Amino acid sequence: MTGRELHWRVDGQDVAVRIEESSAGGIFHIGKEIIPFSFISKHRHGGTVLVKGNPHQFYVVQDRDSHTVWLNGQTYRLERTGKGRALPATGHNGADGSITALMPGRILRIDVAEGDAVAEKQTLATMESMKMETSLLAPRPGRVASIHCTPGQVVDMGQLLIVIED
Amino acid sequence: MTGRELHWRVDGQDVAVRIEESSAGGIFHIGKEIIPFSFISKHRHGGTVLVKGNPHQFYVVQDRDSHTVWLNGQTYRLERTGKGRALPATGHNGADGSITALMPGRILRIDVAEGDAVAEKQTLATMESMKMETSLLAPRPGRVASIHCTPGQVVDMGQLLIVIED
Amino acid sequence: MIRKVLIANRGEIAVRIAHILREMGISAIGVFTDPDREALHRRSMDEAHRIESYLDAEELVRVARESGANAIHPGYGFLSESTSLSSACENAGITFIGPQTETIRLMGDKLEARRLMQAAGVPVLPAWASNPPESEYPVLVKAVGGGGGKGMRLVQNPSELAEAMAAASREAAKGFNDARVFIEKYARNPRHVEFQVVGDSHGNVMHVFERECSIQRRHQKIIEETPSPALTPELRATMGTMAVAAAKAVAYRGAGTVEFILDADGRFYFLEMNTRLQVEHPVTEFTTGLDLVREQVRIAEGQPLSFRQADLHQTGHSIECRIYAEVPEENFRPDTGTIEVFRPPTGPGIRLDSGVEEGSTVTIDYDPLMAKLIVWAPTRGAAIDRMKRSLRDFVLLGVRNNIEFLGRVVSSKDFASGNLDTHFLDRNSELFRPPAGPLPIEAILAASLSASPVTNGGSSSFSNVWTSGPWRNS
Amino acid sequence: MIRKVLIANRGEIAVRIAHILREMGISAIGVFTDPDREALHRRSMDEAHRIESYLDAEELVRVARESGANAIHPGYGFLSESTSLSSACENAGITFIGPQTETIRLMGDKLEARRLMQAAGVPVLPAWASNPPESEYPVLVKAVGGGGGKGMRLVQNPSELAEAMAAASREAAKGFNDARVFIEKYARNPRHVEFQVVGDSHGNVMHVFERECSIQRRHQKIIEETPSPALTPELRATMGTMAVAAAKAVAYRGAGTVEFILDADGRFYFLEMNTRLQVEHPVTEFTTGLDLVREQVRIAEGQPLSFRQADLHQTGHSIECRIYAEVPEENFRPDTGTIEVFRPPTGPGIRLDSGVEEGSTVTIDYDPLMAKLIVWAPTRGAAIDRMKRSLRDFVLLGVRNNIEFLGRVVSSKDFASGNLDTHFLDRNSELFRPPAGPLPIEAILAASLSASPVTNGGSSSFSNVWTSGPWRNS
Fold it and tell me: For A47, phi and psi rounded to 5 degrees?
């Protein structure tokens, strides 16, 4: 899981986005939207990404800061503006402390209770998805404010699971 | 210029080859043959190589030691046997001390005379080829045994230019 | 009106159906199983849904209903000739793009089909329930519910019959849930010549000429062409009339194929009827200008055929080669892997129907058919030359395949002379050997250029070879 | 017998000619200049030789002689309509695959051509050497030796004439070494309809129907089709007869094109004759089954045409789109670069003639035509739908191109209605604007996935994005 912040020039305006990504998918933050995505396929020049249940086939070529995106038969050109920077590894979550499911899957265990104090990177819960076990880690130290899932529950991608507060 | 020795299993027999290669071409040693080649084009999976005046379009995919070569509409499968090893940078030449022209071109200068002692990597001559100046360096310390070219001469790829002896 | 079609299939045929549906302004709904998660056919659809199996009629109908599809196209293979999907569609009020369930049932029962054909005056091979006269040997034991060579036994003399029937019956029971077998006269070295037929729901049935499918391996076709080099105009007319009679006997609706075997003396016999689109349908399309999938959709909508028999003409010659992920030189064993390079040929008279592209992965889960290369030219000779050129230009690496083998077949004298029968490959065993001669030095050079300096035990990218800087001598 | 042909051209047409030569068993000898060192056409030949220029007839003939070629195919453009190559071939005893030098000369002189056509009864536009009657304005000043819009001036009223003629004359002198100009009636919003003709050395001349080429930018065609939506069978027959009369007037040998302009009232006028293969020849091939390059070779060998006029039929509809490395939205400025992704569409009724492949580099040295996408379908409507689908599926990245612009053109109402003329793009200026609406969030996501973490000022590979390990949460 790696995180990045990027800036694009879109219709003359700066758009800041944040992307948290693993090889199977991730979460895309744009404006106030939090958009989970997963990969159907990947290749050298792009792939197919599943967003809100719809697959989007894309190719991207990059020439310095200029990115040309072919998406579903249309081509778009985006200019990268600010410098991107690699962020430290985080959980599946935004900076607001909400832990969401990166992929559809089943909750195997919940290792904390509401009110528990947790350390950064402490395992909060474990889920199974695509035949892989995944630990959901605390993105920062804090206290478990609320738990929104139960063991055995099948959860959708992007579904809120746990909230951590300071 | 990098050099490599490789071993292939061909028709049940071991074949040792040596290849000296730059981005524009090189020399291929197989058995007693010394075969200069140059690249017409290169891409991720192969390219077109000019050998003895004939272009050969090829693609190669590699799966562990097994190499599948598509060449001019035929596919060949070769097994790599011995471990290959990267050789230290050398001149355009084999281990025998003979300096040959890697590309067709024109001799600009000859910086040594027969009988001169030379240090490793000392410039022996300079040639121009494809609008680039290229220095021919001594592959190892030694003495200039013979010079087979003159300034201004146009030389063929693979033509013997200078011989160094210990 | 059909507005949204679920394509209950995968691979090249699912892609091909999606292409024409999208051109017709009809939404194409795909399905995919876990092994096909990254398959090209999934990405060729307007939308696609995950399923457990391409063989579960109830699941397919459920997905169709949930996605709002009002028709299902079965493609070929899978459930295309099973009554389970057509009847599930009927029950759910979804249009099945194919013939009526009853037609599928009748033609799926080889004995029933034989009886119908005999009644319609279509020639069939002599057959017996048991103990044929000794003079009729060799004979073939066949499964009543069978197909694709399963449950079939060649019997040379009467003493072997009982055991062969028992074995075939066991195989048939396992394979088709129907242990019944029967005995048919064995035709030596026949040609396999089939006729495309189309029928609408208004009683119009016509044929769209023949396809010669004699080049087979393990009872599976690998090269098909039309026109057949064996048919005279008279024989074509006679066989076409019989094909129409066969289809009319079951009031055939949709696109189907009447398969015949044709012996060296020009006698032909009904073999079976395929109640679906055929893998080799493109050669018919290339020579007649019809789009058979478009016709299937129109017929399923209840529209009458927009042409008459006299409007149909064969123009030029078309050949199809099936590109399989298999090694012909090693008894056609299938191969798997990732397609690292995919450069199909270009130019006039070439059609590619492909289920793969560069980067696609071929797994063991399904049929090894990756793509079909189809060519057209004004004459058979020019079509062969075009196929030879196209196969030579086709670069497909990463998965072993039969492209060069196909090239040797179409370059052979026997193929050029049109001397085809179902034992073509047995007779031409030299085609299984790559051309003799030493490995070209340039191939060793190419491999050497790609070889990573030190074997690291894993697969390695070629690109690292090209990382050296501009040409310098130091 | 032609056994070895030097193809004096580059790009898609050189590749296309090489394909059919190789299929005919004829060796294809290529030529390439330094900028084309890595070009696809070089690698599509049996052998290829470096030359200084595609415009040096003596050099081309020398290379042909040295390589043992006994014929030269000029393709289109370059020396195809210059007498220098055809006469150099004559002197060297090499077969020029094209018409006689005298035919090229006559048709290259627009005044001479007009005189010949008038004598043959082919309608031409009114023309004057100077000072046309005031009632005939607007008029066009044209170069006698010109072509491609050079040396051409539109004159609205008599007061502007003298200056326009002087300017056109200077341009013509520079461009064609021939300062002569003349004045022709200006046809408003005409269609551009041309007829393919073929003639052999035995006096047989026939036409192979029309091509509608009205969609143009800067006097260059970008979309062509056949049949023309403007022609009735009667008008087609009349124009075809006139095209044959035009070709017979110069005893035309080989494949050529008689260009007409057609006004809204169905009146047509001879515009010029192209004495060579045309860029848009594939639409004729797709609808008639002829291979025009094969015919050119046969005619050059002295063989009589193997068909009669009555044997030729138009079947279905074909459309060609020219894929240019240019930005229509920025006044069609050419773009250059390396083609990083090249995934052409597949399926029935699609032909790709390409001079590039993945990895090819497009430079500023030559015409920006990269490839031609040609489709066939039974009707014009189905062909448009197929072209729309094919353009949408065509992925070409790394060099900016007109694929989406072409998609908007063929999707427009005006195109669907067949309402075409040479001012089509002027009338439909909204086609130059990409569809309105916000950038899809998915496009920003895709770009973000490909973006390297830190801008390093150079171009960066996409692959580094995928280097993260299996999905883990830490």
Answer: 160, -160
pLDDT at A103: 64
Q: What does the angle CA D52 – CA D56 – CA D57 come to, to the nearest 5 degrees?
A: 135
Best residue of B69, B102, B127, B130 to probe chain C, by most C CBs closer than 10 Å: B69
Q: What is d(CA C235, CA C241) in angstroms, rounded to the nearest whole number? A: 10
Residue keyed to tokens 């490909």: D450
Cβ-defined contact of D348 to C285 (cutoff 8 Å): yes
Question: How far is it, in rounded angstroms, from Cα D43 to Cα C53?
Answer: 45
The class of domain A2-87 in CATH terms is alpha beta
CB D370 within 8 A of CB D325: yes
What mean pLDDT is reported for chain B? 81
Structure tokens at B147: 């010079």
Contact present, A46 and A59 (Cβ < 8 Å): yes
Q: How far is CA D3 from CA B54, C69, C389, D298, in A?
A: 20, 57, 17, 12
Most confidently modeled range among A99-113, C423-437, D138-152:
C423-437
Residue D384 φ/ψ region, left for φ over 0, alpha for ψ in the -120 to 50 degree band, beta for the rest: alpha
Per-position DSSP letters for C354-423, written without gaps between them: ES--TT-EE-SSS--EEEEEEEEESSHHHHHHHHHHHHHH-EEESS--SHHHHHHHHTSHHHHTT---TT
- Kindly report the average pLDDT of chain D as a whole number: 92
Is the dihedral angle over the CA atoms D220, D222, D225, D231 positive or is it negative? negative
Regarding the domain delimited by C317-468, which CATH topology (the fold level of the hierarchy) does it fall under? D-amino Acid Aminotransferase; Chain A, domain 1 (3.30.470)
The Cα–Cα gap between C255 and C294 comes to 10
Residue for token pair 């309809």 = D193
Class of domain A91-165: mainly beta
Which of A12-26, A58-72, C268-282 is predicted least confidently?
A12-26
The pLDDT of residue A92 is above 50:
no
Helix, strand and coil content of chain D, in percent to the nearest 5, comes to 35, 25, 40
Measure the CA–CA gap between D313 and D289, rounded to whole angstroms.
9
Asked if the peptide bond before residue C138 counts as cis, ω within 30 degrees of 0, the response is yes
Candidate list C276, C298, C322, C400, residue with the active-site label: C276
- Whether C10 sits among the annotated catalytic residues: the reply is no
A54: contact with C, CB 8 A cutoff: yes
Domain ranges for chain A? 2-87, 91-165
Task: Give the CATH class of D4-97.
Answer: alpha beta
Name chain D contacts of C350, Cβ cutoff 8 Å.
351
Q: Give the CATH class of D191-311.
A: alpha beta
Tell me if A102 sits within 8 A of A26, measured CB to CB.
yes
- Whether D317-468 and D191-311 are alike in CATH topology: the answer is yes
Does C344 touch chain D if contact means CB atoms closer than 8 Å?
Answer: yes
Q: Does A35 touch chain D (CB under 8 A)?
A: yes
Q: Are C237 and C224 in contact (CB under 8 A)?
A: no
Q: For chain C, give every domain's residue range.
A: 4-97, 126-185, 191-311, 317-468
